[in-house]
Amino acid sequence: MRVNGQVARASRTLARQDLIELELPAEGPIRPLAAYRVPLTVVFEDDALAVIDKPAGLVVHPAPGHWEDTLVNALVARGTTLGGGVEGRPGIVHRLDRDTSGLMLVAKTDLAHRRLGAALAARQVRRAYAVLAWGHFDESPTVLQAPLGRHPTDRKRMTIRADGRPARTDLRVVARLEVCDLLRAELYTGRTHQIRVHLQHAGHPVVGDPVYGAGGSRRITGPGRARADQLERLTPRQALHAAELSFRHPVTGQALRFVSEWPSDLGPALQLLAGQVAPAPGLAYFDFFRT
């Protein structure tokens, strides 16, 4: 990069009316999508779309550091036709974080991708997440509304900022447990890391969240601290699961609804909180799927 005709250092601070010159590299060949053979749970599939129950730990689409071991690569390996989307993200209608599990919608044709994308933008796709959040909310239901944008110094993180994009999360307390709440969080908007950042901002971060955990079990004081520490040891990742997905079929118009129970890797955490309930309870036990 050159500024005012001179090569500029990365630390250069720009001023008004500076002339910036950039030399863009020649466009390279499109990176082929490699096949990645990993088992996938397909909840529903027809000629237009598929609903996948994504496991935690699986990145959704290729990106630096994960070019060949993503959900898209796994779909390629099983021979799934993928339609629409930007380069490298074919078929992806919406995303989940790497360590968030649960239901995802994939388009298999360009028409399905356009219509599902439009439905998502019009808030006609309902997405509900099950969350364990530290502490207890005073009111339920409640709405968390705060604009989100990139963190000014850590580009991998999101933060609340006045110039961010509008974001709203609707919450209902499903169960008030010993040191945390089991929440049903519905996305009114779908920003990156939205639920995690909103809950941190509200003072009730997601249990097990390594980025937005804000101290984790250390937030709990008094007699509940030992149980909080135990819960944290039983939570191998952020306790966030995309548990319900409903929308109208982009071709037939049929109303579709899918649910996914609490994942097994987070089962011991919920069992601890439920006490003597056996076998280990799932979301249905807490009436999570009540509409």
Describe, in short, the structure shown.
It is built from five helices and 14 strands. It is α+β, with helices and mostly antiparallel strands and 291 residues long. The strands form three sheets. Strands 4, 5, 6, 7, 8, 11, 12, 13 and 14 form a nine-stranded mixed beta sheet that branches. Strands 2-1-3 form a three-stranded antiparallel beta sheet, with no helix packed on it.
3D architecture notes:
It is a single chain. It contains 5 helices and 14 strands. With 291 residues, the chain is α+β, with helices and mostly antiparallel strands. It has a domain at 125-246 and 258-291: Pseudouridine synthase, CATH 3.30.2350. Strands 4, 5, 6, 7, 8, 11, 12, 13 and 14 form a 9-stranded mixed β-sheet that branches. A 3-stranded antiparallel β-sheet has the order 2-1-3, with no helix packed on it. It has a two-stranded antiparallel sheet with strand order 9-10. Strand 9 (148-150) and strand 10 form a beta hairpin. The longest helix is centred in the middle third of the chain and has 12 residues, at 110-121.
- Detail the poorly predicted runs: none
- Largest sheet, strands/sense/barrel: 9 strands, mixed
Q: Using only CA atoms, what is the Rg?
A: 21 Å
Please report the first level of CATH classification, the CATH class of the domain at 125-246 and 258-291.
Alpha Beta
What is the correct CATH architecture of the domain at 125-246 and 258-291? 2-Layer Sandwich
CATH superfamily of the domain at 125-246 and 258-291: Pseudouridine synthase
Q: What is the CA–CA distance across the termini?
A: 55 Å
Helix/strand structural class: alpha+beta
Q: In percent, how much strand structure appears in the residues?
A: 25-35%
Please write the string of helix (H) and strand (E) elements.
Answer: EEEEEHEHEEEEEEHHEEH
Give the helix tally. 5
Classify the fold: give the CATH topology of the domain at 125-246 and 258-291: Pseudouridine synthase
The percentage helix is: 10-25%
On the 0 to 100 scale, the average pLDDT is 92
Q: Count the strands?
A: 14
Broad shape: globular
